[in-house]
Amino acid sequence: MPQLRCPVCGLPVEVPDDALPGELYEHECGATLELYETGNGLSLRVFEGLEEDWGE
Ligand SMILES: [Zn+2]
What we know:
Elements: E1 4-5, E2 12-13, E3 24-26, E4 32-38, E5 41-46
Antiparallel strand pairs: 1-2, 3-4, 4-5
This protein binds zinc ion (ZN).
């Protein structure tokens, strides 16, 4: 697993080798980060909560 960085504060984020896309990590800066798959590996983005578009 390459070193991933927090998109909010820019510091490294420890992600286990068996991490899967969609998993959430709370970073020390307070941001909730979501692991997602890119074309050539995994990256992190800010998780802004579950979508509430359930049609009702
Ligand atoms: Zn951070």
